[in-house]
Amino acid sequence: MAKPIQPTPDNEEPEDDLDVIVPLPRRAGGNDSELDEYIHLGEPKRAQEEDLFEEEPETAESEEDAAPIPRIERDTKLEEEIEQEKYVPIESLIADVQEVGQSLDPVRMYLRDIGRHPLLTAEEEMDLAEKIRLGVEGEEKLETLLHGRTEAELSDEELDQKDELELQVAQGRNAHNKLAQSNLRLVVSVAKRYIGRGLNFLDLIQEGNLGLLRAVDKFDHTLGFKFSTYATW
Predict the structure, then answer these.
(1) Cα–Cα distance between 105 and 102 in angstroms, integer?
(2) What pLDDT is stored for residue 50 in this prediction?
């Protein structure tokens, strides 16, 4: 089972390690857990609705006979609850875990570790999401530029372009990592709902972190959703 995301100190550059910097785009493996009910892998409703406008092949069925397209309603009350729980003090979360007899020392260490990372404003989320998008775009352009060639085969202009794209990719990876780290409390706020059901809290967090990584990969800031809404939908 994957390890929880390891937070990176704010005053240090992330190390080049898969546990710290998540490659762009990372598609986490593993089985879906109960947490995927809330740490969701799917697209927000708007994205799904846009797909409905794609042309469909004509059929003999009339509009009256066609089965209605089901609409999935968002649980806005749940989204708001989880959004607010992100602001619960770490010590309160530790107390909740302790009440049900979970192994406290590793949980306390983990919660205090993630508590060092400040929550993001909506504007900061948008900025990070844009850098992630540019990072993915930079990887594609870099692959096209190199196309199996070595640096010795590149012109001076292409070498300059390569350096710029590599910087763009690195910034995207750092943004991906920061967006994930700053939302680790989101995973905890969902996992807390399963305390007392015979499930190990850290196991829940590990599974939830996989869902969080998928949500970061799929987050489309142009749709107008906050990340917590997007990830818990």
Answers:
(1) 9
(2) 43
Residue 66 in any domain: the answer is no
Compute the 3-state secondary structure of the chain and give helix, strand, coil in percent, each to the nearest 5.
Answer: 60, 0, 40
pLDDT for 23-49, tens place per residue?
333 333 444 444 444 344 333 444 444
* Angle between helix 104-114 and helix 201-218 axes, rounded to 10 deg: 30
What letter represents residue 112's amino acid?
R
What's the structural domain count of the chain?
1
The string of pLDDT tens digits covering residues 70-120 is 444 555 665 666 666 666 667 777 776 666 555 667 878 888 888 888 888
Residue 139 or residue 97, greater confidence: 139
Can you list the alpha helix ranges (DSSP code H) found in 14-149?
Answer: 45-51, 76-85, 90-99, 104-114, 122-146
Q: Is 18 inside any structural domain? A: no
Range of the domain at 167: 35-41+75-232
Going from the C-alpha of 225 to that of each of 42, 181, 184, the distances in angstroms are 13, 19, 18
- For residue 30, being part of any structural domain is answered with no
pLDDT value of residue 127: 96
Identify whether 157 is part of a domain: yes
Q: Between 178 and 76, where is the model more confident? A: 178
Residue 114 belongs to domain with CATH number: 1.20.120.1810
Residue ranges of alpha helices (H) inside the chain are: 45-51, 76-85, 90-99, 104-114, 122-146, 156-181, 184-191, 201-218, 227-232
